[in-house]
Amino acid sequence: MVNMLGTDKSEKYDYLSTSLLIVCLLLESAVRPPKISIQAEPYLEETNFVKYQIKECTELALNNTLSLSFYSVLFTNSTPYQEVALINSSSPITQLVHDIHGNTIAGMYFSNLLGQQELRITFSFEITTRALHYSLSEDVGVYDPSSSLFEAYTINETHIESANPKIVLKAREIVGAERNAYRASRLIFRWVHDNIKYEIQDEEMGALWALENRKGDCSEFSFLFTALCRAVGIPARVTSGVADPKLPDGGFFPDWKSMGAHQWAEVYFPNYGWIWVDPTWDQFADSDAMHIAHIRTEFAQYKHENHVFHTSWIGWHYEGENVSLNKRTYELFVSDIDSDLDGLTNAEEAKKGTNGLRPDTDYDLWGDKIDWWPTDFFLPNIYLLIAIVPIISLMISWLKARRSRLHASSIKTEI
Question: How many CA atoms lie within 13 A of 41 on its CB side?
Answer without folding.
Answer: 17
